[in-house]
Amino acid sequence: MTHPGQLLKQEKLFAGKEMGQNFLSSPPTARMIVDRAGISADSRVLEIGPGLGALTIPIAEKTRQVVVVEKDRRLVSLLRQELENQNIDWVEILNADVMKTDIAALAKDKKLVVISNLPYNISSQILFRLVQKRVYIEKAFLMFQKELADRILASPGKKAYSRLSAVARYAADIECVANVGPAAFFPRPAVESTVLGFYFHTSPGVSIKTEALLFTVIKAAFSKRRKSLKNSLVGQDLGLQKHAIAQALSCAQISPERRAETLTVDEFLSLTRAVQPLLQEAL
Ligand code: SAM
Q1: Does the reported pTM lie above 0.85?
Q2: Number of domains comprising the chain
Q3: One-character DSSP codes across 61-130
Q4: Pair (222, 83) in one structural domain
Q5: Which of 145, 173, 200 is the last residue of a domain?
Q6: What is the distance of C-alpha 234 from the center of its chain?
Q7: pLDDT higher than threshold 90 for residue 239
């Protein structure tokens, strides 16, 4: 692998902040991430944001079923060249925005293993998208800013427990794979990074409609996280009045004085089931 700094300099390119471009410059770190993803020759891998190929090359050494989605057109020809230098000609390269890519079509008839050193500016949005598309995904190994990874891992009752923690816990078993320091990247980010592994639950748990409402309830509850649920849930997200929220909380046996950050995923689910009939009544 050519050092990203050297490659960019050769081509007179700059890493773009708006695309979260901090390239991995440590081959041992890249190999460790790919090894921990447990890819076999039979795996179909989607890499989001391959950049200059730091992860793509070790992935392609493990399986010939690799598709990568890179938004920055400037990097695509560089990546092609890097892969050619390694005699790798089986990687499918898509120049596209992963937020607009049809993940179901990429999966074909096999669940995907997703690997990414995520663009940090949109890593939460990408995680939400992967959760929504998880029927096509077996597992995902994703690098985040450490602070965000800590929020995703946080359990109910902890200060860092957030909307993202509740949604991620609902959808997957999550493993902390490794912390990675700034020296493993070019350019160096100001912060530490963490790789998390997501093993998506195979059964969806609830219907698509209930799941959409669950995500709205979680969003509404955390939108005013300092307020008690009896107040935070009232408003635009759910469109329910104070008395209806009180009724739903009572039905779900959740104290109206509690805050979002104390609720387990099961309690969010009970609350969602209690809210559902009230929404139908309100129509
Ligand atoms: N995988 C490479 C590595 O580890 O060195 C690059 C990682 S860099 C943190 C993030 C990559 O995602 C960049 O190549 C960037 O251009 C790309 N990217 C940013 N936004 C994207 C999007 N919406 N869709 C696809 N790729 C994106």
Answers
A1: yes
A2: 2
A3: TT-S-EEEEE--HHHHHHHHHHHHHTT---EEEEES-GGGS-HHHHHTTSPEEEEEE--GGGHHHHHHHH
A4: no
A5: 200
A6: 28
A7: no
pLDDT of 283 reads 55
**Proportion of the chain in helix, strand, coil states, percent, rounded to 5:** 45, 20, 35
Query: Taking Cα atoms as reference points, which of 32, 38, 22 lies closest to residue 118?
Result: 22
Atom of ligand 1 nearest to the CA of 72: 16
Determine whether the shortest distance from the Cβ of 51 to ligand 1 is under 6 A: yes
**What was the pLDDT predicted at 256?**
96
Tell me which residue has tokens 């440590």.
Answer: 26
Mode of pairing for the β-strands spanning 172-180 and 66-70: unpaired
Residue span of the structural domain in which 272 resides: 208-282
Measured distance CA(218)–CA(169) in Å, rounded: 12
Residue 16 CA, closest ligand 1 atom number: 16
Query: Ligand 1: does its nearest atom lie under 6 Å from the Cβ of 163?
Result: no
Cβ 53 under 6 angstroms from ligand 1: no
DSSP state of 41: T
**In a shared domain, residues 153 and 235:** no
Residue 265: give its domain's CATH number: 1.10.8.100
